[in-house]
Amino acid sequence: MKLASLAAAGLSFALGTAPVLADTAYPTKAVTIVVPFSAGGTADIIARMAAENLQKKLGQPFVVENIGGGGGVSGVEKVTKSAPDGYTLVLASTSNLAVHPTLYGEKFPYQTLRDLKPIGQVSVVPNVLVINPDKIPARTVPDLIAYLKANPDKVSFGSAGTGTTQHLAGELFMQKTGTQMVHIPYKGSSAMLPDLLSGNVELAFDNVPLLLPHVKSGKLVALAVATPEREKFDKNLPAVAEFVPGFEATAWHGFLAPAGTPDAVTDKLSAEIQAFMQQPETIKKLEELGITPVSSTPAQFTDLIKSMTVQWKEVIEKGNIKPQ
After folding, report:
1. Calpha distance 298→132 (Å, rounded)
2. β-strands 62-66, 116-125 pairing
3. Are 228 and 256 contained in the same domain?
4. In terms of pTM, does the model score above 0.85?
5. Pick from 186, 230, 179, 238: which is nearest to 210 by CA?
6. How far is it, in rounded angstroms, from Cα 186 to Cα 202?
7. Does the residue 17 lie in any domain?
8. Per-residue pLDDT tens for 290-316?
9. Is 147 a member of any domain?
């Protein structure tokens, strides 16, 4: 029986079972986490926190590599072309995964669920609707809608770029309220912010961590959050959906690996990442930054990508939005 067992083991090796066995020892060398944005942003913060935890738990270096450019496309594309062995991952966002493939169509270099394998969602970053109080007299969402209807195409809203959640939030708002504004795209939120503060653009939907300090200082006025319900960082701040039913325009982030990465690898990563996102200290630190931690399975993250792709496709087509 021992000889038969050895023979069976040898046959299994020849048939390719050995890589599956090797996966149980993953990782055996350094793992790269690509963040397709510059350092210091929300994705970068989450990636570095997760990398530190994964390194402690799995015993190998997890190194964050920032690859900016193309609204995050360059970094994600690199991962889609990497070996499907679990040693190159990406922490990508709504725009990279659910918007750009639709916006750019067949010419786009990747399709999310064809070329990537979801590991798990890790965050929701609420967008908040803010105005420059020197430029817009409204102080509530209904007042803003009335003001916009009385001044069609006379108010501009800034965004982090065409096809970002900040842009599509404004488009969705116009579609649901029957208002008209002028979209001014920038190369990132940090480039947009000075013009918002100076009044060169009058309003914006953007991430809470970016805008909250300026709301607290009084330079901007927050009217509502773009999440379905009020957020913990300010329960007195209403949700846009309280006045515009069905409105939701949040940013979110999640980990993915190249398509074809073994289940043993992605399942192991998913379990560790979920455990990390559920730790009280993780939750506390992220919520202090205005980020809502999420712990999801690969299947749940896959469903999110599918549903959000459908939602934003409808907005893109209805708004006749074209890439720039």
Report:
1. 40
2. unpaired
3. no
4. no
5. 186
6. 14
7. no
8. 889 999 999 999 999 999 999 999 999
9. yes
